[in-house]
Prior knowledge:
This protein is an all-alpha fold. It folds into two domains: about 5-180, no CATH class; about 190-255. It has helices spanning about 5-40, 50-75, 80, 95-135, 140-175, 185, 190-215, 220, 225-255. Helix 7 runs antiparallel to helix 9 (about 225-255). It is globular and about 65 Å long. The chain starts with a helix and ends with a helix.
Amino acid sequence: MDAATAREFMAHRRERAGAIAIGTFLATTGGGALATLTMLSDPDIGLFSEVLGTALGFGIGLVLVAAALFFFLDHPYGDEYEKFSENPLALDYDAKMAVLEERYHYARGIRLKTIFGIGLLLMALFMIILASVGSDSLWGELGFTIIFGAAVMTVAVGVWMIVHAQSVNNSYKILLEKEDFSREKKEKDPIFEAFSGVYWLSTVLLYLVLGFWNNWDNADITWAIWPTAGVLYAIIAVIWTSITESRGRQNFTQN
Length: 255
């Protein structure tokens, strides 16, 4: 690969990173709007009627999610670049120097965005814990809902910063074949790739089914599906990697 192609790819990734980050922000705020407005229609708060609160929540949520989908679909991953993250690369000297120079130029911004993004996520977690602890004695249901809405917005901003920073950073990892884009990772088992897609789609389906089945009355319990699914996925990934590596060593020994 020559330097011109490497620069074109990095420019494409920077442009796409902004769009994907905005789309993620809109999708997160859409879900937050749905949850917050539904909570505000609770009889204990009475700010809206249940019908109006639900209608507003779904309406605003759908508009924001639709806007997010527009950003996702309007900035697809170029077909000519998709192979870069899947196949081994061979950069010439000028191309490698161009990547290293650009990575150095953007390194501070990427690092700061990632740090601030993680800080905002931790702040949002603290806000939720604080709201839950004092919901009965300090600020009541209305105060809890307001803090919850603010926490969701904080999460949305934090996720936007992290997604934007890491999307740009991944372009350098792809070209330099580092970490998740190393040649070893590119040779991952396609069976596990297919399993991952089915696993997370099933998790989303289970979450939605349980939520709607209980009319979202037990949302404080239903959310536990996500960390549980994440832990199980990590365990399965470790076991699968151990099995495949063991088989690879056996095949190498036999040959």
